[in-house]
Each structure stands twice: as structure tokens, then as C-alpha cells.
Amino acid sequence: MAGVRGYGGGIVGRFSDEPDEYPGVKEYHTARLNQIEGFFYTSDVLRKLADICDEHAGGLFNFHGSTGDIQILGFKQEEAEELFQKCTHLGFDLGGSGSALRTPSCCVGPARCEWATYDTLHITDNLTREFQNEMHRPTFNYKFKIKCAGCPNDCIASGARSDLSIVGVWKANIRIDQKEVAEYAKKFDIKKYVVDKCPTHCMDYTDGKLTIDDSNCVKCMHCINSMPKALRPGLEKGAQIRIGAKVPMVQDPRLGFILIPFYDVNKDKEEDYAFLKDLIQKIWDFWDEYGTNRERVGELIQRVGVGNFLEAIGLDPLPEMVEYPRANPFIKFEEYLVPDDEEEGKEG
Amino acid sequence: MTDEQKQKIKEFVVNLVKEYHGKKRFKPQDLEKEVEQNFQSENITRKDAKAAIKELTDNGELIYGYAGGSFLTLPEDQTQ
Fold first, then answer.
1. Nearest beta carbon to residue B69 from set A1, A137, A294
2. pTM recorded for the entire structure
3. ipTM higher than the 0.90 cut
4. pLDDT tens figures, A317-339
5. N or C end of chain B: which has fewer CB within 10 A?
6. A205: which DSSP letter?
7. Where are the alpha helices (DSSP H) in chain A?
8. Chain A stretch 288-327, residues whose beta carbon is closer than 8 A to a beta carbon of chain B
């Protein structure tokens, strides 16, 4: 068994199948360290971390694991406690592993990116501190990942890789600077490379003027990425919460679907993310009660149905909550009797 | 939850893991459910069970293992 006292995660045991033939890698464990939000490190910290890695492990790092942690590779169980203690003195705690909350991670956010619609670093730090117990003491059916992306570019692939994905979006119209549009027109064909590539065809470029029908914009970011000086996201900024993404293991890979189309994250920040924390807790309670062993939350929702899930967590269904696109063009209506109808029926 | 109740829960959990050692792997939530059922009359909640289990892992009476999923087991020196 590999691990350190009091922690159920953070150390991943790796034992060789052929210990006699390869005694040098008989034990080759991995320590997952909680990464810094946005992956910023000083060179001094990295040097000190490298010294610890040389002294107690195989001198090999993995920056960063798929969840985001710093991984120190290749140590024996007898070195685990000392390696852990030295890392904590340097300011690094262990991250999550096993059937637990995995270390929440985020993109560089407003620290280095102008598109971020909310402070991804702050929310990730806050959630990490709030859910220390869930991260270090595995009590879930299986893993649970939270990733925060500052804009729909989703540089950390949260929509594909995390059970709960918080992606920055905006509500108001995209801001257009027609003077800068004219400058871009001198460099490339705006109609061919921007307007015609819009997935919902909500843009028009006629007589040197660019217009956008924002009500049909799906925020794919293509136009903004192509002409960053001319176009900027709308000013009413927030985030979208998606749920259920995962890569394959028990069942096939899944993309997350929209749970909350517009979450006013900047307002919730003032209340210490109370709404978000409450929502996460409700999701976990439902998963804990009805999930089976090694069933991700997305698989559970697929099994029990989105309706039952929404009812359990107390959210009203919205048209944006599309689990997957329609497979046939027919619409099925279900009729529900309300108490008054029932009484009328009896009388009739 | 009183200190006495917490102690009783801790003993119950350790005995359960000992009794089933080598036969069943208890996930933390399995143990929480067992505690909840067995201490129902004393109004013990899952939160209380969690707190008791946390103390057991903090002082090394139980350790976490992983085999496809996380479970709680006895330290290696107590299994021989």
C-alpha cells in the first residue's frame, strides 16, 4: 500500500509486475501535488521542488497530470512521508486521487488572458480550500473533477474532461469596433474567413460594415479569435455551468451538457460562491444516494434521466439543458393531469 | 455527538473492518451507511460518521487503499 497518514489520496501506488527482474523499479509511486492556480511558479520554488524530487524520488516530474497536479514520479513507500513533509513545508499540499474530488484546476484566467469573463484563479482556490475533506478523504462512488475556464475557448478542455465545468460566457452583445474591422479587411477576406465560418450564420459583412445577430450567437469565439482588436465579448459577464463530461472508462466518452446557461459568478463571488457550493453539494448528495460503484455523475444522469436529476437538485428545466441532440424529428407530448382537471373529469 | 458516542462509533467501524478483512472492501460511504443504520436510535448522522472515520484515518487506525475504487482497511502491521 502506498500513501501518507491521514490522506486517502494524493499518492498513487505503482508496483512492478516483475520485481525480481527489475528491482530498481519494484516500487515507483507517484505523488500528486496540488498545482498553483493557472500553473504559475517561481523558478526558486521549482528548483527546491526539483531538489526534493532528486533526493526522495526518481528525479522525474510530470507537469501537469490530466487533472492538473504536479506529479513527482518514482519513489518508494519508505520515502513517502518525508517527501510529503518537505513538499508541505514548501507550500504544496497533496492533490486528489482515487474516488475523490480531484484537484480543481483552471486556465490562466484574468492573470494573463483578456477574454476571461470571471476570476478563474480565485474560484478555483476558493473551491479547493472549501472541499479539502472531499479531496483528501475519498468518499465518492468514483472520481469527480471541477475545471474552470475563463471563456468559451475553454483552453483547459473543461467541457470534455470535467464532471463539473464552469465556462465563462457573456450575455450582452459582442462589442464591434468598425474602424478595426476595416483594418482587418485590408489583411484578409472577412466574409470568407470569418462570416462564412460562423456556425449559426448570424454575421453579415456588407459594404464594409460588420453586423452580428447576437440572439443567434452560440459563443463559439471564432470571430473574436480571428479579429481580437475589432471584436470583444459583451459586457454582462458570467459563466455557464456544464455537467457530466468524462473520458472513457466504464462507459464511452461524453461531453458535458448545460446545467445553468448563465450563472452570475461575479455576484456569487461576493457571497463566497454560496450558490455554487450549495449546488455542488446537492449534486454530490444525489450521486452518493443513487450512484453505483465506479459510476461517474454523467453516467448516473444518463441512467436516471435529466428530469429526475434536476428535480433532485432543485433546478427547473430550461430549453438550454440539452443532454444530446435530437435523434429523430418527432416530438412526443406527455399530458399531465393537474388536480382541477382531475376533479372536473370526475364530475364529467 | 458526545465524545462517548464518537468512541463507540470508532470501535464499531474498526470492528466491522476487522471482521470482514479479506472478505469485503468497505468504501468510506459504506461504513457511513452502516453507522447511520446502527446508531439510528441515537440520532447519529452521516456527518458524525464522517467525523469519526476522519479521526480513525488521522491517527492511523485505518488506512485508505485503492483497487479500482478507494476503500478503508487495516494498517499492514495489523493484518498479519
1. A294
2. 0.87
3. no
4. 998 887 776 677 776 666 766 66
5. C
6. E
7. 43-56, 77-89, 120-130, 132-136, 158-161, 178-187, 190-193, 222-226, 265-270, 274-290, 297-304, 306-313, 339-347
8. 288, 293-294
